[in-house]
Amino acid sequence: MKVIWILSCLVSLSAIFAANTCQRPKRLDKSFDIGSLDGSWYFVRGLNRNNDCYECHNITFYPAHQGLFFAEEYYIEIMNATTIHYSIESSLNQWNSTTPGVIRIDSSDVNYSLEWRIIDFGLNDNYAYVYYCGTYSGGFPFEGSVVLSRTTALSNDTLSKLEKVATSIGLNLDNYCKIRFDHCDQSSEL
Ligand SMILES: *[C@@H]1O[C@H](CO)[C@@H](O)[C@H](O)[C@H]1NC(C)=O
Ligand SMILES: *[C@@H]1O[C@H](CO)[C@@H](O)[C@H](O)[C@H]1NC(C)=O
Ligand SMILES: *[C@@H]1O[C@H](CO)[C@@H](O)[C@H](O)[C@H]1NC(C)=O
Ligand SMILES: *[C@@H]1O[C@H](CO)[C@@H](O)[C@H](O)[C@H]1NC(C)=O
Ligand SMILES: *[C@@H]1O[C@H](CO)[C@@H](O)[C@H](O)[C@H]1NC(C)=O
């Protein structure tokens, strides 16, 4: 009993420690309304090569009940000429009632918990610039940043806006991979 209790303490401590290693940007869109995520989005830019750079990557958010959303995410990875399709379901809500712009995403499909921070959001709901910090299975921290867009390509106006915002938080949009959507129809191979 005691050993199990100590172990579970260690696990939760490591979760706290891991999350605290994230370099959260100072900037946060505190007027963000989680309801504006409703509908379908493409992930068009990604900073973390291990998590954010796929052949195709899109997500659809559905309102579930009061403040809670349900998400279906889809992405394709091509490894050694093999196309792998992933489909992930998760739930999300505002992290706490006093902090708009911070969203908690939990997925049992991959057993991760993510903190999404909305750095900037398009005035006409056309893009969302997100920083995230997460942990797998209560450990293994990871962080990154993505740009979601209602369309597969960003307009030049949005791009120059995002470049400025990235610079303001010490990041460079040129370091983000660009997700192309030209392999999305590849069928899975064995
Ligand atoms: C992703 O995009 C494809 C192609 O447009 C679409 O069929 C699919 O429903 C989308 N999936 C999600 C989760 O948005
Ligand atoms: C796939 O390619 C990587 C290098 O890109 C290699 O390390 C790995 O062994 C390959 N896997 C298979 C199953 O061939
Ligand atoms: C809610 O967010 C505020 C601002 O970040 C923070 O100070 C507070 O501790 C959070 N409350 C909970 C219950 O997480
Ligand atoms: C999922 O993560 C939790 C910690 O957040 C851990 O207690 C649990 O064992 C994990 N489950 C699996 C199936 O890995
Ligand atoms: C957007 O910018 C690129 C590169 O600067 C340029 O080639 C292209 O013509 C621009 N597109 C529009 C619609 O202005």
Description:
The structure is a single chain. This protein is an alpha+beta fold and 190 residues long. The protein has one domain (2-178): Beta Barrel (Lipocalin), CATH 2.40.128. It is built from two helices and nine strands. The chain has helices at 2-20, 156-168, and strands at 39-46, 56-63, 68-79, 82-94, 102-107, 112-121, 127-136, 139-149, 177-178. It has an eight-stranded antiparallel barrel. It starts with a helix and ends in a 12-residue tail after the last strand. Residues 1-18 have low confidence and may be disordered. The structure holds 2-acetamido-2-deoxy-beta-D-glucopyranose (5 copies). Residues 79-80 line the site of one 2-acetamido-2-deoxy-beta-D-glucopyranose.
Q: Key terms for this structure?
A:
alpha+beta; violaxanthin de-epoxidase activity; Lipocalin; globular; disordered N terminus; binds 2-acetamido-2-deoxy-beta-D-glucopyranose; eight-stranded antiparallel beta barrel
